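Quick one, tokens below. Sequence please?
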């Protein structure tokens, strides 16, 4: 079943359950997908839909961070719940250990020696972790590994 059809069915189910969080998250996701479809002038593939969901998840994580810093825990919690709904449609996230292995492998493949080589590492790494890991976290971890050891390969 395509992701779009699954959205429609889950949207109907959320309406019947009066699940306001799922309803809100699914409606926002459908609207974002529809906007991209209009921009592209065609139906989106499941991979393109996952890319839209990934962007929305990133926005939720940033909002959670900002709301938490601002002391608005009730809003942060709402964002966390919506993020959980979005993530249920995305591939399973990689564990920290799995990401760490991929980072070390990419550092080795790129022969990176310092933070100046970070672009080469990220170029190899991002296609492997796109949609299954938080890019900001991956970026920070690569930076830590390159700056702490000078050589992690």
């Amino acid at each position: 079943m395509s992701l779009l059809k699954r959205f429609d069915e889950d949207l109907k189910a959320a309406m019947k359950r009066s699940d306001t969080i799922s309803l809100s998250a699914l409606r926002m996701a459908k609207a974002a997908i529809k906007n991209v479809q209009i921009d592209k002038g065609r139906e989106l593939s499941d991979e393109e839909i996952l890319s839209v969901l990934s962007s929305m998840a990133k926005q939720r994580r940033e909002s959670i961070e900002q709301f938490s810093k601002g002391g608005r825990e009730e809003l942060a919690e709402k964002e966390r719940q919506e993020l959980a709904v979005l993530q249920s449609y995305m591939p399973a996230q990689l564990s920290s250990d799995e990401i760490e292995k991929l980072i070390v492998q990419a550092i080795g493949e790129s022969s990176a020696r310092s933070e100046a080589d970070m672009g080469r590492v990220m170029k190899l790494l991002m296609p492997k972790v796109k949609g299954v890991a938080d890019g900001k976290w991956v970026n920070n971890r690569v930076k830590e590994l390159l700056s702490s050891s000078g050589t992690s390969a």
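Residues 3-87 form a domain with the Hypothetical Protein Yqey; Chain: A; domain1 fold (CATH 1.10.1510.10). The first helix runs from residue 3 to 17.
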